[in-house]
Amino acid sequence: MKNKILLTFYFLFFTLTIIACAPKTAPPPVYEKTAPSLAEIIEATGLKDIETFKAITDIKVLADGKPHSDVSASAVLRKPGMSHIKAYKFGILVGDIIISDGQAHVLSGKVSDKVKEFSKELYNAVFWWDDMKDAEIYRRGDDFTLEKANKVITLDSATLLPQRQEIRIGERNIVIMYSSPIKFDEFWYPSMMDISLDNYEFKVRIEKLRLNPEIPEEEFSLP
């Protein structure tokens, strides 16, 4: 009888020891990566020291979903809010526009109001972070969202590159879609921007991109 009691005790002790040493089957803790600050995003993506972009682009314009026109353009954009865009068709200058203080100034060419508006929004598309200092930043699924009163920007959480931007002006929404990131020198940037303005769509493909080139002051001089 005594041997049976000892045997039972040893069995229980052995069983409890095995259970205590067995690996836990509960799932591991989940660590949600919090959204970075705008300063951290700018630092990580190399945007911190960029004051000027100079780009060679191809622009396809659609009206009501149908091809409308196709031009090439050179664009110089400088903080804060300055742009100089020259549009060419078959190598001939067809539009020369300077954006200054939120106003479009046509230096040459017949430029429609919709093209003027696009020229102003191109700055917002390229310098997407420029006026987002007071934005709320939070994580949504696999993306980070930057939101303020009149603007919402979605970033890929892995690359911190912009994916979508929505600008609200009264009852209107201007939508900018980004795609096809390309490495320009050591800098990654979306090479495709799709800017939707009401029934018009401007598909911008960046062919060449230079960061902080030397730009003479007369580049933005008005007549």
- Helix content range: 10-25%
Order of helices and strands: HHEEEEEHEEEEEEE
Overall geometry comes to globular
Rg on CA atoms, Å: 28 Å
Give the SSE layout.
Elements (H helix, E strand, L loop, with lengths): L1 H20 L16 H8 L6 E12 L2 E13 L3 E8 L2 E9 L2 E6 L4 H14 L9 E5 L2 E6 L2 E6 L5 E8 L2 E13 L2 E11 L2 E12 L12
Antiparallel strand pairs: 1-2, 1-12, 2-3, 3-4, 4-5, 6-7, 7-8, 8-9, 9-10, 10-11, 11-12
Offer a quick outline of the entry.
This protein is an alpha+beta fold. Helix content is 19%, strand content 49%. It starts with a helix and ends in a 12-residue tail after the last strand.
What does this protein look like?
By secondary structure, the protein is an alpha+beta fold. Helices cover 19% and strands 49% of the residues. It contains 3 helices and 12 strands, in the order H-H-E-E-E-E-E-H-E-E-E-E-E-E-E. It has a 12-stranded antiparallel sheet, with helices on one face. The longest helix has 20 residues. The radius of gyration is 28 Å and the shape is globular. The N and C termini lie far apart (112 Å).
